[in-house]
Hints:
The complex is a heterodimer.
Chain A: H1 2-13, E1 26-29, E2 40-42, E3 45-50, E4 55-59, E5 65-67, E6 74-80, E7 86-96, E8 114-124, E9 127-132, E10 140-143, E11 149-153, E12 172-177, E13 183-187, E14 194-197, E15 203-207, E16 211-216, E17 224-230, E18 239-248, E19 254-261, E20 266-271, E21 276-281, E22 286-292, E23 297-302, E24 307-312, E25 318-322, E26 329-331, E27 336-340, E28 348-353, E29 358-363, E30 368-373, E31 379-384, H2 394-399, E32 403-408, E33 417-420, E34 425-432, E35 437-443, E36 448-453, E37 458-463, E38 470-473, E39 479-482, E40 489-494, E41 499-504
Antiparallel strand pairs in A: 2-3, 3-4, 4-5, 6-7, 7-8, 8-9, 10-11, 11-12, 12-13, 14-15, 15-16, 16-17, 18-19, 19-20, 20-21, 22-23, 23-24, 24-25, 26-27, 27-28, 28-29, 30-31, 31-32, 32-33, 34-35, 35-36, 36-37, 38-39, 39-40, 40-41
Chain B: H1 2-8, E1 18-27, E2 41-54, E3 57-74, E4 92-110, E5 117-135, E6 146-164, E7 166-169, E8 172-185, E9 188-189, E10 195-196, E11 199-210
Antiparallel strand pairs in B: 1-2, 1-11, 2-3, 3-4, 4-5, 5-6, 6-8, 7-8, 8-11, 9-10
Amino acid sequence: MTKSLSLLALLALLPGCAPWDLPGNGYSSLESLTWDPAVLAAADGVYVRLPAAGDLVRVKPDGSFATVNLGGASPDRMVLAPDDETVLAFVSWPVCLDDDPKIVYVDECRNEDLDTDSELAIIRDGAVVHAVDVPAQYNAFAFNEAGSLAVAYLDFSAGVDIDISGVLNLTEAVFVDIASGEAHSVPVGFAPENVLFSADGSKALVLSRSRVAVVSLVGADAWTRTVVYPLTLDVDQQVDPDNAVLISNESGDTDYALVSVSGQAELYVLDLTNESIDIVELDGVPADLIVDPVTNRTLVVYSNRATLDVLEHELFEVESFDLDEPCTRIAGDDGRFVLYNDRGTAHDVYVFDTEAETLDEELAENPVMELRITESAAWAVATMDTESAAGNDVSGFYDQYHGLGLFDLGDTPRDPVALLLEGDPVGFALTTDGTADYALVLMEGVDTLQKIDIAAGTSNEIRLEESPVGIDAMPDGLFVVSHPNPLGLVTFVDATTESMNTAAGFAAVGLLERPALPRRNVEE
Amino acid sequence: MLSLLCALALPAAAATNELSFEVGWLGAPDPAWDLFSNDNALGSVGLRAGFAVHPNVAIIAGWQHAANGATVDVPGAEDETYDEEDYYGGGSSFETALYTDQFSVGSKADVKVFKWLHPYVTAQLVGMRGLARLDDDSGDDENLTQVQRAGLTGGFLAGGGLDFIIKVRGKVAIAPYVELGYGWMAPLALKDLGTVQFSGFAGRTGVGVRF
Lengths: 524, 211
């Protein structure tokens, strides 16, 4: 009996291996984000990358969501085409060089046998319509105005890690016909960094480090480099890819390109008809330039010079307008432009009418971070940064807070309005209900969306489920707000009716999937 | 069937009716299980009932329940190559839970070696219902991001064990037992979340009444 009791005691100890587990007593961690809150707001829904699961989901405004079948590949980067309906996604998938059919999962393949393959997936209505062979390192896209053509190239300024597997040709750009999925690699010069399209869509200008290549997009010589404009002889000088514009004549033909070179106080005028280069001397290094289609002139501002230069397009002579403070950015597009400085402590905001040649100076209470113009072109709305408090007066009070500046662009403008914001603005968008313009503002740590009637300067709060991290406009007028929830949370907001719908939990999709080796039977 | 054949070949009668309380383990090598537990096995508790149909054979049926969960840390967005920094403010976490119920039925064939020791073999079919729950704020019942998915799967258990018989009165005995073997379950499909599979070492131990 004693022996039996001892055995009983021994058996009673066996469960000491903790079989009484209850939820919450374990610990685990993921190596990647469950979802990327930088979502793509397309016409058919919001596309969301799920890095941990390696999936792509489409979330619809009704709150439903479904995985986009990428054939086992994971989305690395994606961009929305101008038609708002096509998503271009660089996708990659693991490849096991050991062709043993028993190897099914990634963790069954030896590390030295693991490799990665990639392609560009063209996605429409939640499905891949074309898969295009484009080097995975290419991380930037340019689209023509019609949105029918995409150019993929490598943008070093994006600051991403570039993995060179095999041989990578940095002198090429890949032109992709979005409708057919047809791709054409064109040698354009070392490290292409920006692409401009002519107004008629017949040619593209690819700006690379030291030259500009013209690529024909139509006719017998389509997809070939027809002309190269070498812009710098000094290898230390580089084309400034962000400061280049095309100039079209009244009949719509693109005649010239204006290109600046980093650090140089001059503009290169590329004659696209007669294939020649001229140089316009400036008094400073351009910070921003924009073409005014109304007067067919180009506006240039400088970060270190308080001047607005206006270039006419016949002889490229410069007319200068003095400013009180330098401006680094120009916003607008039809004869009425807003000049501001988003790099320093300058507070001046200028409204320039190109036909009347009037320059109205306004004052932003704090330095401008970002400025946008309403669809009606009646208002400019700017988010403003904090700055060191300059005193105990009202300006000193403003300095302590982020703000929203409302600038009247009408013919008889009212004084600017500076609204104080409770928190750091993490996103803002502009909308209209047909009768009034509104600014939608999100602030860090504040679980409301502020709907601001711009003309009235009044605010209405739309309460959100959680604090937001970003806002995007959908093509149908809805706005999608992202929240920093690890399992996925976005809110679709109709700013007109102030109604909203929430989609939650989509980031859990595929979290339990064991990563398999896809496309094992596909001939490479 | 194996246990039945073994039993028919055995001379000494031992099988009795039984009702037992038991704990069990089933191997969980699937990496997906890591989101629910740091252990390598699914630990469970349950009941087993047996009905003697032959001097050496009993039909047994059992139920095992398990509840496992973990806190899962998610890295912050600054660890990724995104433009939008600090989306997660340096990281966040969510809770997971997996509730499983195993229902088994099979046969058990034993032999009396000593009055107090009855070795046996057993083979059982197992059905499993699983319920996974993911929640970033488990303290809030109305939290929007409560993800819940259920699934069904099946498999088998086979092994051998030892019954330790402690006579109490007449035909009634208390019987601790221990059982080891192999178990295999088809992947438990939890809809769009994915799958979790259990297989490998299986063990059961418990104590019950024989009558």
